[in-house]
Amino acid sequence: MDMIDYPDGEQFSPGHVACAGCAEALSLRVILNTIGPDAIGVVPPSCTAVICGGYPLSSVSIPVQHTTLENAAASASGIKRSLNAMGKPDTTVVCLAGDGGTYDIGLQALSSAAERNEDILYVCFDNEGYMNTGGQKSSSTPLNAITGSTPAGKLSRKKNLVEILAAHRIPYIATCSPAHLSDMSAKIKKAESIRGTKVIIVIIPCLPGWGVADDAAVKTARMAVDSGVFPLYEVEDGVDYTMTINTRNQAVNAYLKQQKRFRHLSDADISDIQADVDWGWEYLLDRAGK
Question: Disulfide engineering: 139 pairs with which of 62, 159, 206, 207, CB 3.0-4.6 Å?
Answer without folding.
Answer: 159
